[in-house]
Design a protein that fits this description.
This protein is an alpha+beta fold and 483 residues long. It is built from 16 helices and 16 strands. It is elongated, with a radius of gyration of 30 Å. The chain binds zinc ion.
Length: 483
């Protein structure tokens, strides 16, 4: 497709995100919610929909929904209720899903993504379905039969629905990344796309530039990584434009992203909400949400990623890049905040965290909390550098040692004799030795090629394994050679 063709259309994207809440028990019963347990070991008559049972709402779910709503600038409903959504799936034993239809708990919020306001239409609470495990072998057709695991049935979900304010694949990805960061900061969801604790469906349509009316939207499912989300949207925009350019029509449908092939395929035509025959859930009393309760929850709101980023750049003087890298990982941000409280030089701790430490974590596939490094030992190491006790080159080794073995920076420096040598007498004798060993370079220097001093200083550093004070070495060379 040519750039000219693409430029004739604009893209309209809305995202529906399901966030699995990190409560210990399910939304309507006390079965456990732990991931990866033995099949059907975390179930009870309520979540398996036995006759005569009654659901009891988990208070923590409501609290997490309110907390998330506040973080996303939503209005919290004073009055909210649950509804039954009907559909038949083997992994949905009641044949209904308890969800919220016309009176969700949160409405009319927004999130700023790169300075642009993406409105949040609503956030509602609902229960998750179970999982089918395809088993046996039936040749190329796949499995011979399916088993059902109800452990996930009734695990609480928040569905966070944006308005169609997103206008590109990159923006959709940025929105999703930021949303994941927020739920992680709030501690309501672990935000793991691969394990399915954060799931995203994208509604995508195109329309000619300047047309007010929205085009027909297509929903894409199975976007289980940020990369998949971005690629699927890019593919879908192109598919829709080509379809329209060739005189075809976009059908309202649900499509599945095939990551290995890099395409979307038609799955089913999209249901309208009346197909679900929603009606009020008769077994759960409507929720009246007390303003005082909302107020108390608001008081527990942590500092959110965007606020942190502003504080880091404006108050602590970090670069946009450093602030961005730190804020992107809640573990690193927590670590940085503690370190910054212990050192006079927060910029240096940011540099270490975004540089050598992040590189080490990537290589070793560890999180910072799995290493031996602590905010105390990092702050101590920075102080040793600032006092001139160790050089930056030595500190690079110390920080790795701290991550691998833990302990204190001072102790490592003492034990391994890593302090900078600033003793004039000691360095002078090494300088003299190097001069003696390199008569040709000395001659060049005396002939005016003063840049050879770099080589000579390097020899001293080699001799002292990086510990000589480089400024002093330079000064002493000049003193010896110019005299
Ligand atoms: Zn249960």
């Amino acid at each position: 497709m040519t750039i000219e063709t693409a430029a004739k259309y604009e893209t309209v994207i809305g995202l529906e995100v399901h966030a699995q809440l990190k409560t210990r028990s399910k939304i309507f019963c006390n079965s456990a919610t732990e991931f990866g347990q033995e099949h059907n070991s975390q179930i009870c008559p309520v979540c398996t929909g036995n006759p005569g049972v009654l659901p009891v709402l988990n208070r923590k779910v409501v609290e997490y929904a309110i907390l998330t709503g506040l973080a996303l600038n939503c209005e919290i409903a004073k009055f909210s209720k649950f509804d039954r959504k009907h559909y038949f799936y083997p992994d949905l034993p009641k044949n209904i899903q308890i969800s919220q239809y016309d009176m969700p708990i949160c409405k009319n919020g927004y999130m700023l993504v790169g300075g642009k306001k993406i409105r949040i239409n609503r956030i509602h609470m609902e229960e998750d379905a179970g999982k089918l495990v395809h088993a046996g072998s039936a040749g190329i057709a796949g499995s011979a039969y399916s088993l059902v695991d109800y452990n996930r049935t009734g695990v609480p979900l928040l569905e966070i629905v944006s308005e169609p304010d997103i206008s590109s694949a990159e923006e959709a990805r940025a929105y999703m990344e930021q949303l994941r960061n927020i739920v992680r900061y709030l501690g309501v969801c672990d935000g793991n796309l691969e394990e399915g604790s954060l799931r995203c469906d994208a509604n995508i349509s195109i329309r000619p530039v300047n047309q007010q009316e929205l085009g027909t939207k297509v929903e894409i499912k199975n976007l289980n990584s940020f990369r998949a989300l971005q690629r699927a949207i890019e593919y879908e925009i192109e598919r829709q434009i080509e379809e329209v350019e060739e005189g075809g029509k976009i059908i309202q449908e649900t499509r599945l992203w095939k990551d290995d092939q890099g395409i979307t395929i038609s799955m089913r035509t999209k249901e309208e909400s009346h197909d679900y025959r929603y009606f009020p859930e008769p077994d759960i009393v409507p929720l009246e949400i007390d303003a005082n309760w909302v107020h108390r929850i608001r008081e527990t709101l942590p500092e959110l990623p965007e606020e942190k980023r502003v504080r880091y750049t404006k108050k602590l003087g970090l670069s946009e890049y450093d602030a961005g890298v730190i804020v992107d990982s809640i573990d690193i941000a927590r670590f940085f905040d503690k370190t910054a409280g212990l050192t006079k030089n927060p910029k240096a701790s940011a540099n270490w965290l975004t540089g050598d430490i992040t590189a080490y974590l990537k290589d070793s596939k560890k999180s910072i909390d799995d290493t031996g490094l602590t905010p105390e030992s990092l702050a101590e190491m920075i102080e040793l550098i600032d006092k001139g006790t160790i050089s930056n080159a030595i500190a690079k080794k110390v920080v790795v040692s701290l991550m691998e073995k833990g302990g204190s920076a001072q102790k490592i420096v003492d034990e391994q004799g890593l302090s900078v040598i600033s003793d004039e007498g000691e360095i002078t004798s090494i300088v003299k030795k190097i001069i003696k060993a390199n008569p040709q370079e000395v001659e060049k220097y005396k002939a005016g090629k003063t840049q050879v001093i770099g080589f000579l200083v390097g020899q001293v550093m080699k001799e002292t394994r990086g510990k000589a004070n480089p400024g002093l070495v330079n000064k002493l060379f000049k003193k010896e050679l110019d005299s």
